[in-house]
Amino acid sequence: MHLDSKHARIFVAGHRGLLGSAITRRLQREGFDRLLLRSRHALDLRDQRALNHFFEDAKPEFVVLAAARVGGILANDTFPADFIGDNLRIQTNVLHAAYKAGVKRLLFMGSTCIYPKEAPQPLKEEYLLTGPLEPTNEWYAVAKIAGVKYCQALRRQHGCDFVSLMATNLYGPGDNFDLQTSHVLPALLYKVHSAKSRGADSFTVWGTGTPRREFLFCEDLADACLHILKQPEHLLYQAAPDGLLNVGVGKDITINELVSIIQQVVGSSCSVQYDLSMPDGTPRKLVDVSRISSLGWHAPTALRDGIQQTYTWMLQNQIV
Ligand code: GDP
User: Fold this and answer.
1) How far apart are CA 140 and CA 5, in angstroms?
2) Top-level CATH class of 10-174+215-250+285-301?
3) pLDDT of residue 256
4) What kind and span of H or E run contains 140?
5) Among the four residues 22, 129, 197, 265, which has the most C-beta atoms within 10 Å?
6) Which of 123, 116, 101 is nearest to 9 (CA)?
7) Is the CB of residue 255 below 6 angstroms from any atom belonging to ligand 1?
């Protein structure tokens, strides 16, 4: 059932994360006045009993499941047990509690890494489970696939209106700039800025710089979430009969092209050193955005503008 009241009780799970905080800001700006927000200390989503109590007491009508253990290519490879275990626990608990509580619509955040490594590009939703995964993030991907399938199963068996959004590489204000665990865009913003501040000649790019990635601004994904929450059910499932929707900008660039944009934004001309001991990961993951386009949604923010806003946030918050 779609969202049509500013007084609906909406639970944003993971409201302190990059996406969750963007959605929360957006909903507050739009005047939604019954947001349900719980910090990790107040409610551990890995604890099914605590979560059941929360759903019984707070009675959320809509859920945006943006809570997850996330990280870049190195973090995924270093902490495989955390990535698969925490994500399986969080999503299984939330999806089960939401089904039991009769939630009207739930958005589950999938990821484009769920698609097979060698799938044709752009990636269509129907390519799910048609081939082997990229090994550097298979732990995270397997958990997310389980979440997508659980949403589908709950819809099929119990009629739950649970939709999975497969977002491309997300970035924006509030990002993680820790070089060991971050994704490439905030990592390179940090590295280019700090190289410039130190007067260094060069900075390091992992891998060959040739992989292609598609970058989505967190405020744009928040915009897409609201758009999908408001979609009438018949239109939503006409566009996405299996409950899967890619969310991206429909355009990708190489890591080297990303480096040039970041250098322009930061105002730096340091040279690049490639660390070939680090993995490239999947060569490309551009999503097909036909389904969400047919629902009238397009990512509004240009990459350079989004990077500029993220850089401004990084400076204001004295990250470097
Ligand atoms: P992925 O999209 O799951 O592979 O995750 P990342 O955002 O971590 O990495 C994307 C690509 O950027 C990979 O090819 C990385 O090797 C490359 N890359 C280049 N420099 C960096 C860096 O400093 N940090 C990260 N995380 N990735 C980098």
Assistant:
1) 35
2) alpha beta
3) 98
4) helix 138-158
5) 22
6) 101
7) yes
pLDDT of res. 319: 83
Phi, psi (rounded to 5 degrees) for 138: -65, -25
In this prediction, the residues of the chain whose per-residue pLDDT falls under 70 are: none
14 close to 68: Cβ distance less than 8 angstroms: yes
| Residues labelled as active-site residues | 140
Closest CA relative to residue 171, chosen from 256, 262, 278:
262
| Domain boundaries, given as residue ranges, for the chain | 10-174+215-250+285-301
Q: Ligand 1 test: best mutation among 184, 189, 273, most atoms within 8 Å of CB?
A: 184
pLDDT for the residue numbered 77 = 87
- CA 165 vs CA 1, 36, 53, 65: distances in Å: 17, 21, 27, 10
The most distant pair of C-alpha atoms in the chain lies apart, rounded to whole Å, by 61
- Alpha carbon distances (Å) from 134 to 72, 87, 107, 246: 13, 18, 25, 18
